[in-house]
Each structure stands twice: as C-alpha cells, then as structure tokens.
Hints:
By secondary structure, this protein is of the alpha/beta class. It has helices at 10-20, 41-53, 66-82, 97-115, 133-141, 159-165, 188-197, 213-218, 258-261, 288-324, 349-358, 388-404, 413-424, 430-439, 451-459, 462-476, and strands spanning 90-94, 123-127, 144-148, 170-176, 201-205, 235-239, 251-255, 266-268, 276-278, 329-331, 339-344, 364-366, 375-379. The protein folds into 3 domains: 50-295, Aspartate Aminotransferase, domain 2, CATH 3.40.640.10; 301-404, Aspartate Aminotransferase, domain 1 (Alpha-Beta Complex), CATH 3.90.1150.10; 413-476, no CATH class. Strand 5, helix 8 and strand 6 (235-239) form a beta-alpha-beta unit. The relative contact order is 0.12. The structure holds pyridoxal-5'-phosphate.
Amino acid sequence: MRIPSTGLTKAEVAHAVESARKDDWPWREGKLFAYTFEAGADIEEVGKHAFMAYLTENGLDPTTFPSLRAFENDLVDMSRRHLGGDEAVVGNFTSGGTESIMLAVKTARDYARAHRPGLQRPKMLVPVTAHAAFHKAAHYLGVELVLTAVDPNTFLADVNDMRAKLDDDVVLVVASACSYAHGVVDPVPEIAALAQERGVLCHVDGCMGAFLLPFFRRLGADVPDFDFRVPGVTSMSMDLHKYGLCPKGASVVLYRDESIRKFQLFACSEWTGYTMINTTIQSSKSGGPLAAAWAVLQFVGDDGYMRIAKDLYDAHKALVAGINAIPGLRVMGTPQMSLVGFTSDELSVFSLCDALKAKGFAVQAQLASGPSKENIHMTINPGNTRWVGPFLEALRECVAHVRAAGGGVKPPRDLASQLAAMIASDASGEGLGRLMDGLGVGGGTAPRDMADVNALLNELPLDVRGQLLVAFVGRMFTPVPG
Length: 482
Ligand SMILES: *Cc1c(COP(=O)(O)O)cnc(C)c1O
C-alpha cells in the first residue's frame, strides 16, 4: 500500500477501519480466554472517555502537563497501598508488564554496578515459570539470565536451587505472584529472605496477580504473602491493563524506596535539544492510557473490584473442578488465581485447542518447556465467567471427539529431528524460508489450524524452536506489495 495520493473522507476512513476487523476474534462474546479483560460496557466507556480526553497530551514533559503527573502519582499511591507498601515506596506508570520488568531489571543492574565496583557480569536468577519478559530484558540489557528449577508437581520456584545458584554476580532474584502459565504464587517470603541475606534485590512479578490477589485473599483464597509486607521484596510490577480492567498500555513498577528507584531514571543534558528527563523507556507518550487507568480505578472502586473478584473466584473454582472431572484431563499444580493450565497424558492438547476453536472457544496452547509438558492455558476475564458451563460441555465433547479420532496429532519425532538438523546447517536461511512457504506462512498470514504446527514446534529442541519462531515472526511482518 502507498499513502493515498488524495486523502479519503472521514466517513470512508471510519468505514475502512471498522471493516478491517472482520476476521478478528469477536471477543465481546466472552469466549476468548486470553488477551482481553473486559468487564462490561460501563467500565469500557469510562476508560474510553478518559483515553480520548488525553489522547494528544504528551507524557514526555511532566511540567507542561501537571495533570498527567498527578494521575501518575495517584496511581502509584493507590498501588503501593494495595500492595502493603509504606510511604517510602515509589514507582512509575509504564506501558505494560514488559516495560515494568525491563525497568526493574535495568534498575537492579545499575544498582549493583554502583554498589559493587568489581561486578563483571551481572546475572539474575529466574525460575523457569517466570514470564518471558525477563528473557527479553536479559536479551536487551546484557544481563545474564540463570534459570532456576521449580517443583515438577506444584510448579513453585525451588528455593534450594536458587540458593545454590546465588553467587557474587547475581544482581536480582525473581518470583512470580502469580505465574502466567500455571497461576501459582511462588514462595515469596523464602525467596526474598534469601535475597536479603545476600544483599541482593528481589523483584516480585505481580503483572498478572498483584491487582487481583489481595481481593482473592479477602474472599478466603489460600495465598502466601507476596507483596511489600514481605521483608526483602525490593520491587514489584503490577499490570493495570489486566485485572485492573484498564485499557491497554497500563502497568506500574514500584520500588521499596528512592535509593533503588533512582537507578531507573534517565536524564540527558549532553545534547543540543530540550532537557530530557525520562522515567520510562518510552519518551513521547500519549496521556491516554494513564488518564484512562486513573479513571477506571476511580469508577470501579474497591467495592466494584470485590464484586468482580467474587465472580472470577467462583468461575475459577467451577472451571478447575470441571476440568479435573473429565477423564483424561488434569489441571497442572494448584492455581491460586483465575488462571489455569491443564494437560492430558492420553490426548493431544493441540488437537483439543483446534476442536475448541471450531466450537467458538479460544484458548492458548502452551508448548512443553522444562518440567511443564504441553498444555492448554486459560485466563478467565470477567466477560468469560458466564461461559464456564457451556465451555466445560464443549470441552467434554472435544475430548470425546479427539479420543474417537485416535487421540489427535501425534508427535512428529522424525520430522522434528530432520528439521533440527536442517536448521543447524541452514546458514543462509533458505531452508527456513522454504519451510515457511510449505506451512503457508507469509504475506502477513498465519496458518489457520495450529495443531500440526504446534505439535512440530513442541518436539524441537528449544534453541531450534526459537530460530523457527523468529523466522515465523519475520514472515508475518513482511508487507505484501500491492
Ligand atoms: C502479562 C504478563 C507479563 C507481561 O506483561 P505485558 O503487559 O504483556 O507486557 C509479565 N508477567 C506476567 C506474570 C504476566 O502475566
């Protein structure tokens, strides 16, 4: 596509924008168990109004738009109280969990550089269940990521393994509250105590859980301490665009005090332009997500979040019990929040995913990694709760269907090892290109039925899987001239 030689009319553009989404998943139906956290038209409207009101204001300069600074300080204040932090706790609003985590890792690296002059190669200890954003941060920031073990049944971080790997180069240890894949809360008190003993910073990733878990605790859920009440926890990330129900582009990163947070901040006077002072990775940024997050928290309030939490709590209990009652399926670990990972020792979970999709339910396939075999992930959002019954019925039918078809796609072991060998000797990337053509990936399209692709990916060594996925993304984001 070229920039049109003459601009379209407003009506033409509006029509084009609306018709562009015809193949998008119809998330408003409530049958998509991931990606969206919708909780009704009123909340959406409040968020949208504030978002549009501040669409054009620029968060680049906190002195020109003091309203944005006030919204941010309010959100940080509400967040630190929500997470048991005292008045020394400081933090910032960011564009999402990934940015919060990148900033926390950068802060830990630079804090250690300042306090340990001999530090050569900064490392962080990251349980295999922690979010991929830590791997991305390591990749971007030159911090070595040392994976640590989890219990193969509970999927909780193994504190002894962390202790064994905690050497003088470690600048940060990580715990999840809760983990994305299995929805379990790591033993934060033990992990933070270990870090504190050794004078190392400890980040609790509460991107998914930190907002909702305090409500779940009030409902009686068995959740260990995970927030700033725990000595030794030095930073936390919490997404407002997940269970805070705010429009996307909303997260906070919090630190125990300013002596740590100051390593997050960036100022530059060694150039000829305006005085640059940045709290986050983004520099120019819309005030929309920030104003919207502030507005949504004001509108929903503690009572509203509590009602929504109760609905999620009940739906989650019913979902876990319902899945475990289906012969051939089992929930992995004991999820403590409204997420679940479940698997099967008899049937292909990838075939199950496709079968569910044919019935209008979208769930996520999670590939095998370390101690976690391939499984199906569901994040329950408020719009999903009314579908738990029909979902379980559809799941029973899909299990019967996949069982009748012989269990679904079989692991293509020979193909996987041939492929791994081919990629190892494929310096030019030509072989990979042909493979992508064969899979029908290219020109901005993705394969429709994913079972075969996932079954193949699942069998590949992790490094080969990574190379294949990079080639896949490159293909998906190559415009087709036309
Ligand atoms: C979603 C999530 C993240 C990453 O957040 P984004 O907002 O997608 O960048 C990090 N950690 C956990 C546990 C998450 O669920």
